[in-house]
Amino acid sequence: MKQMIYSTLILGFLLIFLGCNRFQTSQVTITGQFAGNTPEVLSYTVPVNGTVFEGFYEEVTLDSLGGFEIRLELEKPALINFRYFDSPSLIVEQGKHYDIILNLSPDQKLSIEGNLGKVQEFYTGLMHTHPRSCIFSFGSHDPSEYLEIRRELQAELQKELNGFGEFLTMGEISEDVYALLVADRNVYYGTAQAVLASMNHLRINGDGSSTPDDLMEIWEEAISMVSSDQPFFLRSLYAYDYLFMTFWFNLYSALGYKEVVAIRAENRSQGLIHSNTIELAKEYSSDMNLEFFIAAYIDQQYRFRFFDQDLITVFEQFKTDYPQSAYTPFLEPLMQEVIEYVEKGI
Question: Is 61 helix (H, G, I), strand (E, B) or coil?
């Protein structure tokens, strides 16, 4: 009997120890200080269900000296983005503590400093302009020169991937951090290349011409750069943009430009453009993480100020389809504003 009691106690202590150890190794602490211009609060993205999106964020209030502390629970390495224009992200791993200095310029550009290592320094130095606009930094800055810009995008990506590979070989980063960074930059450049192809596709078809085969090949190449089941794919800040460009490629490939334009025009005239987008996504991109896609879509439409009854309908359906969704708390305050706007009939 005593032996059974002792065994039970030992097992209990072991479970407590393992639970505490797991908690300790999964927590990330970021201690920071602002130098120069100091805001009242700092917004930062948080991983939700293994995904990252600029609209899913939390805030920390700074103390009187511009200091702050952020605590996160992570199962895998992540990129934490401070929500300022073209801000680089902070590479964080579970169980680690980071001391950083943030410098905010008069034009609201944010830089990250601190004893963060060569990998963070290398990553911070990469291009972080939004992939929807970074294409104007390449080639002749003329998007119609898409073959030249595509070559430069791919060359820049390969240079970055080679850099990550060197850090891995030298033991500077773990396999997981390497996989995260490779996925992140593939998503970044894949989104940029897809935007380049989409922009030219709309321009050429809008002029009454047919899309060249090489343009659709460039678009297809772009959306094939990262597999949707890659473990770190959805941890990239621009995963939603990548999925969105994949959705449009699938749609145009299946239906053709003219039919897509006709369908969209009809639904827009009926005030059903949001519902139509989600219906088409379910039909033509059913293999992607639809819960994440729809949640991010709702958030983005809010930020674009596309307030109407149809967006409310999409949100209500989202809550029905995903009653326990971790994204809902981020969306509810936004949608309450949309509801009030629609009810006032502004």
Answer: strand
Class of domain 23-116: mainly beta
Taking all residues of the chain, what is their mean pLDDT, rounded to a whole number? 90
Please report, for the chain, the start and end positions of each structural domain, with discontinuous segments joined by +: 23-116
Q: How far is CA 318 from CA 196, 215, 259, 322, in A?
A: 31, 35, 27, 6
Taking the C-alpha atoms of residue 180 and residue 79, their distance in angstroms, rounded to an integer, is 8
- Per-residue pLDDT reduced to its tens digit, 10-51: 444 444 444 444 444 689 999 999 887 888 899 999 999 999
300: left (phi over 0), alpha (psi -120 to 50) or beta: alpha
Structure token digits, residue 157: 């990506």
Report the interhelical angle of 213-222 vs 146-169 (nearest 10°). Answer: 20
Please, how many CA atoms are within 13 Å of residue 306, restricted to the half-sphere of its CB?
Answer: 15
pLDDT at residue 140 in the model: 66
User: Bigger pLDDT: 144 or 1?
Assistant: 144
- Residue 224 phi/psi, 5-degree rounding, is -105, 0
Please state the pTM of the whole predicted model: 0.89
Q: Determine whether 4 is exposed, middle or buried from the number of CB atoms within 10 Å of its CB (0-12, 13-18, 19+).
A: exposed
- Token readout for 77 is 């390495």
Phi and psi dihedrals of 81, rounded to 5?
-110, 130
